[in-house]
Amino acid sequence: MGQGPSTPKITAQDRAIFQMKQQRDKLKQYQKRINTTIQRQNDLAKEAIKKGETDRAKFYLRSKKHQQSVITKTYDQLDNLENLIGTIEFKLIEKDVIYGLTEGNKVLNKLNTEMSVDKIDKILDDLEDHKLRVDEVSDLLGAGNLSNNEEFEVDEELEKLNQEINGKESINLPDAPNDKIQTLPDVPSKIEPEKSEVDESQEPEGANPIAA
Description:
Elements: H1 12-50, H2 54-114, H3 117-141, H4 148-166
Protein name: Vacuolar protein sorting-associated protein 20
């Protein structure tokens, strides 16, 4: 079977307020009875006066006066009771509000602790450390890559080798980086033979210029 709804817990304050409200309701019922009695005594006093029974009329009026005094006191008691009930109920509301404020303050303090400057600085430092580690790993993974200048030097070397092998035929090189632009020297189209240290047209010293 399913569990039924839980019964609200009745506190001592709830019982006290309930009892005071019962007393208030009883006072109101008592006031109604006294008002009925006062009205009855007033009517009896009128009848006694009509019959000329002055003493009896005065008796009813005295009793009426006494009941009026009693009902005045009951009104005062009822006012005090109503004020007391209202004060207690308001204090209970204040208690709930203060409890809510207290719990809210605890939550705020906890959040402020979790979001303290030192803790935020530590988090930022940790993030920076992680970023540095990621950068280190990225550098290691890209260690085999050449820089732009190094790539250009490789292309230069390739061009030189191509010229040595194929003459003027060259391959298309990529544009050089801005920080390293070099002009390659022109390769001569024909290599002249080196001159002999001794001129063959010059006769040896002591030779007879006239043929025999």
